[in-house]
Design goal:
Blueprint lengths: L23 E12 L2 H8 L8 H14 L1 H4 L8 E10 L3 E12 L4 H19 L7 E11 L6 E2 L2
Antiparallel strand pairs: 1-3, 1-4, 2-3, 4-5
Helix pairs in contact: 2-4
Length: 156
């Protein structure tokens, strides 16, 4: 039986062979946030940032990044994604980011969801950094995963 590991017998990095695994519907949800000053949130909510619509750019960047995860993360499998959604919500002190990614395949989409959140957060930072250099990207994590041999996972 093949072991699921990213190292071979000699300890060298390798891509895990998932060819013996069954295909199944897989979904992952990741979240994160960009904490910023109230004035910066107001600029975003009123669509007055100098670089344009911050939320629209971040949403598109997150979706595009999820689709390119295998090019960004070493040893990550390229996957045919069936759906990618990036939701952005303005909180009291942060833009909250949630990415949901789905596929039917032999391996999960946790990395794609995490990549979508991370790139959306970096896009937000880039678009308003001139007015708020103290922003923080925080709490990027997988909050839910379903499908596959390892079963379901959920946390808040």
């Amino acid at each position: 039986m093949s072991r699921l590991t990213h190292t071979d017998e000699a300890g060298a990095a390798r891509m895990v062979d998932v060819s013996a695994k069954d295909e199944s519907v897989r979904e992952a949800v990741a979240r994160g946030r960009v904490v910023m000053r109230a004035e910066t949130l107001a600029l975003i909510s009123q669509n007055k940032a100098e670089k344009g619509d911050v939320l629209a750019a971040a949403r598109l960047a997150g979706i595009m990044a999820a689709k390119r995860t295998a090019e960004l993360i070493p040893l990550c499998h390229p996957l045919p994604l069936s759906a990618v959604a990036v939701e952005l919500a303005l909180g009291d002190e942060a833009v909250e980011i949630t990415a949901t990614v789905r596929t039917t395949g032999r391996t999960g989409v946790e990395m794609e969801a995490l990549t979508a959140v991370s790139i959306a957060a970096l896009t937000i930072y880039d678009m308003v950094k001139a007015v708020d250099r103290g922003m923080r990207i925080e709490a990027v994590r997988v909050v839910r995963k379903s499908g596959g041999k390892s079963g379901d996972f959920a946390q808040d």
